[in-house]
Amino acid sequence: MTPVARIAKTTAFKLSAVYLLVFSAFALIFVFSISYTASEVLNGQLADSVEEEILNLADPWNDGGVYALIAAIQERSSRPGAALYLLVDPMGRLLAGNVTRVSGDLLADAVRGPITTVYFDTAENQREAVIRAVRLGGGYTLLVGRDIAESERFGSVIRTALILAGALLIALAMGSWFFVSRRVLKRIDAVSDATRRIMAGDLSGRLEVLGTDDEFDRLAASLNAMLERIEHLLSGLRSVSDNIAHDLKTPLTRMRNRIETALGAAPDSDAQRAVLQDTIDEADQLIRTFNALLMISRIEAGAPQEARELVDLAVVAADVGELYGPAAEEAGATLTVSAEGPLNVRGNRELLGQALANLIDNALKYAGGAGREPRIAVTAARDGGDVVVTVTDNGPGIPERDRERVFGRFVRLEESRSTPGTGLGLSLVAAVVTLHGGTVTLGDAAPGLAVAIRLPAAVDTP
Amino acid sequence: MRILLVEDDRETAAYLVRALREAGHVPEHTADGASGAEMALGGGYDVLVVDRMLPGRDGLSIIEELRATGDHTPALILSALGQVDDRVKGLRAGGDDYLAKPYALSELLARIEVLARRRRQGDGDVVYRVGDLELDRLSHAVARAGQAIPLQPREFRLLEYLMKNAGKVVTRTMLLENVWDYHFDPQTNVIDVHISRLRAKIDKGFEEPLLQTVRGAGYMIRDPRR
Q1: With DSSP H G I counted as helix, E B as strand and the rest as coil, what are the percentages for chain B, rounded to 5?
Q2: In whole angstroms, what is the distance from residue B184 CA to residue A349 CA?
Q3: Is residue B226 part of a domain?
């Protein structure tokens, strides 16, 4: 591509060309309309002054007849910058004035009204003028005219000035516009270069934010936020695949070994049946894990507005508490639910119920220990514009440094490796809460863990 | 029971057909939506099992088409889309139950049985009887061998659901769905504990236990003498 063609392809050039065209058209219209109006006004003024001169000459004619008029004409013709004068007798002879020749037809026309652009012979030269003639008594005709060369000159000066100014304006506008759009488009180019670099694999790259707080800074900031999220999701995905490899391979290997043992056992024996039953349990656990994984990714991919029904968290807390009550009792734990309804939020009742179930489930696993009676408290209450649901246990709690980490998929703290579970419970809680525009925090219940879910209360709470 | 299976994955379909046959059903299978719709409209099935993601067609449309003709053959939707919204969408389109892949075969079989029962009997009975156990759905009275058994409201609903499906296996997720109206997978033994409490109330002190655990599947209430 030639350099010219390349420049012609840039948006800066195209925009400038359009700008130039539009601007020139306007400038042309402007110049013509101004110069036209100006010459109209000037010609009108000339016609007026001709009429006035005729009125002036009426006085000597009325006072002293044709001789007084001739004297007045001769006196006025000799003034500097004089108008054109001509007095013709009934026979068509020129009696006085500074016009040397005029045709009878023109004279007759001039009687009917002012005429412009007529060429006259005077003693010195030929001139273009506005003329007006009147018939006087006794067959005399008086003609008065004004040279329009002056107004023509004025008009052309205006036109030239306007055209010059217009050309200058266009040139300046072109220049500055080209400069401005080049600058703007250079920043767009910078953005697209940066995104290309990032797409090429350098996900940690970010766009430059100049701190000018203009549209480009905002664009760069939003793109950076988007990249941040993509990077986060990707790294999540990476650690998930690593963990999947580990957490799913182990049960699969166990299953395989069991089946192998079953093959070796006596056919149709109790031992074989037991192994097969264990295998089914293991497979169910795997299915459970897969379902939880799928669920989490579906929820995480979901838009917050997907969950929109009115849900009373007090009812959900009571329901789930009731569901877990017997299981807690069986485990020798005390489960209390205190929730004064209605505590409405906008969301998905089933997902919120499942999140709460996961928390109670976790609490059940860890509550108690070190001689303490296992105790789990579920509370739900309004806090300003939010509804806060907390699940508190009196177990060992989670050390502060691990609190962020446990929301990750398959993350299980060393001390919990031995307890059954998918390692996905808290990830699901976090996903559900995020979907609902809320936050989940882990706190110290000294001793124990306090998990607090904070969700924006529904505005139209009755 | 005649069961129409519309499932495009050959291996899954073959496996399901065999399992359904072993369970005493008469399954018919088709892999594509168009012939699936045709066969379903032809009628004569007790239960339809329809996969949502069929080549070129959403399985839901088959059910919608069928319902538009006034046919109410129970339909179970199978889907890899497991989110709650998808389930709601499936049920709105006229499906009677929804099962997300991957699922356990025992879960699928139990749900098919329950769906077919719903078609044959309806919900008309006021009093459910299993052996000498009686449950009155209007007065909420439960008695065994003429002896009144007081139940908590939730225990009553649990027993009601089990008795409504007497002789059929109901899974833990089915119980959570129908008794608590939550649709997730109970990770721990929560349901089992509710069941054992119920069992303590209705079976304790009686010679014949009615409420049985079906290993690897769920629970069943049944008169052992029949």
Answers
A1: 40, 25, 35
A2: 11
A3: no
Q: Which domain holds residue A350?
A: 305-456
> A459 pLDDT exceeds 50?
yes
pLDDT at A343 over 80: yes
Which strand (E) or helix (H) includes residue A131?
A: strand A126-135
Which of B121, B138, B164 terminates a domain? The answer is B121
Q: Is residue A193 part of a domain?
A: no
Q: pLDDT, tens digit, for every residue of A393-422?
A: 988 888 888 777 777 777 666 555 555 566
A118 pLDDT above the threshold of 70: no
Task: List the CATH number of the domain containing B43.
Answer: 3.40.50.2300
A289, A293, A295, best to mutate vs chain B, most B CBs in 10 Å: A295
Which of the four pLDDT bands, split at 50, 70 and 90, describes residue B121?
low
Domain co-membership, B100 together with B131: no
Q: Closest to B84 (Cβ–Cβ): which among A283, A288, A351?
A: A351
**Residues belonging to chain A:** 462
CB contact under 8 A, B193 and A422: no
Q: Lowest-confidence range among A210-214, A234-238, A455-459, B79-83?
A: B79-83
CA distance A131 to A144: 6
Q: How confident is the model at residue A307 (pLDDT cuts 50, 70, 90)?
A: low
Q: What is the number of structural domains in chain A?
A: 3
**Shared domain check, A286 and A255:** yes
What ipTM goes with this model?
A: 0.79
Residues A290 and A312 in one domain: no
Which pLDDT band, with edges at 50, 70 and 90, does A461 fall under?
very low
Looking at the fold, whether B116 and B46 belong to one and the same domain comes out as yes
- In Å, what is the CA distance from A90 to each residue of A60, A93, A128, A142? 19, 7, 26, 11
- Is B57 within 8 Å of B83 (Cβ atoms)? no
Residue B82 has its nearest CB partner, among A280, A294, A351, at A294
Picking from B184, B189, B191, B214 by the largest number of A CB atoms within 10 A of its own CB, the best residue to mutate is B184
Domain membership flag for residue B131: yes
pLDDT attached to residue B175:
92
Q: Residue A56 has which token pair?
A: 């002036």
Q: Does a structural domain hold residue B200?
A: yes
